[in-house]
Amino acid sequence: xxxxxxxxxxxxxxxxxxxxxxxxxxxxxxxxxxxxxxxxxxxxxxxxxxxxxxxxxxxxxxxxxxxxxxxxxxxxxxxxx
Length: 81
Fold this sequence. Notes:
Blueprint: E1 2-5, H1 14-24, E2 31-35, E3 38-41, H2 45-49, E4 58-63, H3 66-79
Helix pairs in contact: 1-3
């Protein structure tokens, strides 16, 4: 599992959640973002938005597909820029 701390001032809102879900949807394997010990399906925009991610939130990336895990880590890191 990889860890990312969200630094974006607006946290994760609709646009980044859409990008995450689109990327996660490219793999047939399960993908989750974990916040405060609770897993959220990375393929579900509504699920991701329900996390309530604000600046400073730590997310863990849990994927069966290592390539997808790396891609999600990269995307979340780029969203912080």
